[in-house]
Design goal:
With about 160 residues, the chain is mainly alpha-helical. The chain is about 55% helix and about 10% strand. The strands form two sheets. The protein has a two-stranded antiparallel ribbon with strand order 1-2. The protein has a two-stranded antiparallel sheet with strand order 3-4.
């Protein structure tokens, strides 16, 4: 879970809202300060645009996880060698080990979410929410007025 930040085009107030990694949801947003409505093209109607292909590709995350693991192991071996030979270690190398470990774990978690079917369940939930919104003709007309491409089946 992440968040999206934006400044209201009308009042200029900074807003923050929780979202998923792929920013699925209604692109029609309301300012929390002045309650004005505007269009934010970072948000995607999953029923209209489809699922992000990366949420269905476990191979990509497995390869990235293995790559990060190899990077981490090589940096750790270099770090241990530096400590043994010089008695100290470069901070940048320690940072590389840390970043590599986080990348390994992060990619592995996403890989497991896809393989276990959890990602598909989440996508289905967002799809159903999007479908409910797109079945509302007034909402679809608002999207069209903002220039959003709405497939013919929802018009």
């Amino acid at each position: 879970m992440g968040y999206v930040e934006w400044s209201c085009p009308k009042c200029g107030k900074n807003n923050r809202e929780n979202c998923n990694a792929w920013v699925y949801g209604s692109p029609i947003r309301n300012c929390k300060s002045c309650n004005s409505e505007y269009f934010d093209n970072r948000w995607r109607e999953i029923a209209a645009e489809g699922v992000e292909p990366a949420t269905k590709n476990p191979k990509m995350y497995l390869i990235a996880s293995i790559g990060f693991l190899i990077f981490t192991i090589l940096c750790a071996m270099w770090l241990v060698t530096d400590i043994k030979m010089e008695g100290s270690y470069p901070v940048k190398l320690l940072g590389c080990v840390f970043v590599g470990a986080i990348g390994t774990v992060g990619c592995l978690v996403i890989f497991l979410r896809i393989v276990s079917g959890y990602e598909d369940k989440q996508n289905q939930k967002y799809y159903e929410e999007s479908l409910r919104r797109l079945n509302d003709k007034a909402y679809v007309q608002k999207l069209i007025s903002y220039g959003y491409h709405v497939p013919e089946r929802f018009r």
